[in-house]
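Tokens as discussed.
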């Protein structure tokens, strides 16, 4: 009988959740977001192609032999002129007929480059100065009959590259931020939905009718699982959309882009971990929200009543951002991997960075499941007392079981 009552509550709550317009809008929005994420490189590229080509002029008052073809390798379209009126070129920039121009001249024993641009482009300037310096050195080498190979060896730049401390892509940090942000928002939003649903039924006296047909504990878990499955469906649609677009190959993904990192990082295995730890994290906090929902007499009191849970959730998020993300192999990170309130986020971060062993994942899962079982037993005693009282209760009143 209890199982039948539970299934009735579960199916009713789930159907009510997925039939709302807000749920439909959010689901469609998440699916559109997954498409937009993969289409963003093509969209950005289309805007880049449509933009007008940058044009530059360089007034050469030196003996250096410059090449318009070589300058085109710097960027944009170039024209070399031996002489020109500065004021006339300025007017071309103001009329947007010219992106910028440069005057190269000799001053004392040095070359000097005068720059005229409406907006400074540091990347362009570095490339241009490097090109002019190469030309100057080549001119001196030719004049002094110096062996070019010696000069080339002396001027060879030192190569350097950034090496990650962990077995993850550099853009993986952004993915981690996205994952914990989604988890934080989902848990807080859907957990609050559980509390609101219970408080609304309690204030409208519907609970008094339902309690005669359904036991309090099956009712509580029916609501938690019903809303939880609805939220899980949205998360599954979003992650499933990402995996679908990645495997279909209908979008052109540039090498080294953020989207490519998403594809390489969120594999089917990682997606399974995300779903598992989202479910566990949701259960941990949803039970707390359910108890708080049974404590208040009306939904208007929920904001203040749920504040301790929100503070706990925000404190967990703060610990993840300030400590765990920067030190995924630190002692504090390992500790938070076994604290139920922080473990879902901490373990996910360590999975993305490949700093956690399979055994640690299993132990963390066992600890969280045991905590959920313990908390469920406590909630089973507290929840019935809360929903049977029409007025608001305190935690002290609730924990007095007898």
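Sequence:
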């Amino acid at each position: 009988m209890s199982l039948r009552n539970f299934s009735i509550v579960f199916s009713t709550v789930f159907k009510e959740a997925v039939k709302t317009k807000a749920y439909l809008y959010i689901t469609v929005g998440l699916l559109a977001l997954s498409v937009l994420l993969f289409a963003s490189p093509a969209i950005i590229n289309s805007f880049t192609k449509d933009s007008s080509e940058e044009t530059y002029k360089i007034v050469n008052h030196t003996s250096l032999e410059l090449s318009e073809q070589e300058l085109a390798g710097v960027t944009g379209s170039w024209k070399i002129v031996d002489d020109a009126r500065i004021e006339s070129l300025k007017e071309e920039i103001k009329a947007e007929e010219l992106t910028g121009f440069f005057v190269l001249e000799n001053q004392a024993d040095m070359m000097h480059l005068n720059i005229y641009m409406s907006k400074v482009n540091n990347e362009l300037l570095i490339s241009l100065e490097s090109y002019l310096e190469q030309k100057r050195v080549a001119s001196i080498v030719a004049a002094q009959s110096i062996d070019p190979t010696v000069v080339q060896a002396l001027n060879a730049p030192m190569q350097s590259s950034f090496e990650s401390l962990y077995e993850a892509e550099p853009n993986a940090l952004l993915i981690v931020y996205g994952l914990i942000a989604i988890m934080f928002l989902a848990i807080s939003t859907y957990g609050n939905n559980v509390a609101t649903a219970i408080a609304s039924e309690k204030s409208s006296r519907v609970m008094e009718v339902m309690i005669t047909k359904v036991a309090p504990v099956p009712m509580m878990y029916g609501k938690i699982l019903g809303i939880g499955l609805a939220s899980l469906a949205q998360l599954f649609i979003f992650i499933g959309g990402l995996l679908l677009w990645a495997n279909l190959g209908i979008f052109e993904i540039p090498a080294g882009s953020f989207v490519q990192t998403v594809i390489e990082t969120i594999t089917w295995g990682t997606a399974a971990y995300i779903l598992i730890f989202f479910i566990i994290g949701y259960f941990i906090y949803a039970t707390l929200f359910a108890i708080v929902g049974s404590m208040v007499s009306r939904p208007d009191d929920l904001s203040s009543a749920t504040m301790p849970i929100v503070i706990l959730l925000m404190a967990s998020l703060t610990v993840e951002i300030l400590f765990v993300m920067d030190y995924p192999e630190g002692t504090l990170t390992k500790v938070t991997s076994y604290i139920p309130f922080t473990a879902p986020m901490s373990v996910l971060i360590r999975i993305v960075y490949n700093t956690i062993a399979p055994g640690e994942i299993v132990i963390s899962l066992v600890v969280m499941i045991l905590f959920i079982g313990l908390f469920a037993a406590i909630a089973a005693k507290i929840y019935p007392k809360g929903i049977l009282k029409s007025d608001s209760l305190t935690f002290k009143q609730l924990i007095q079981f007898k």
